[in-house]
Amino acid sequence: MEITISNKDLITAFIKNNDLVFEDGNRNAPCVTLCGYALYLGIETEDELVTLYNFDIDTQTELQFVFPYAKKNNYGKWWENESAHKLYKF
Q: What is the count of structural domains for the chain?
């Protein structure tokens, strides 16, 4: 029997394990990081991402701007390389 972990669990663990904080004045960098990781997981839209975690309204707004840019520029691809695995806890 194969055990699978949901994207919700993966996103929640990623935020916690990498100490991502989405606060006023420090939202963009964690959102960029999270969007790239979410794309790596196969999450296709910011709406899908927002349903997986209890983001505040300001973070949701930031994700609406960041996610399409990250998707257009293939930010999910970077998470496949060894550097990502050295810098972040998956």
A: 1
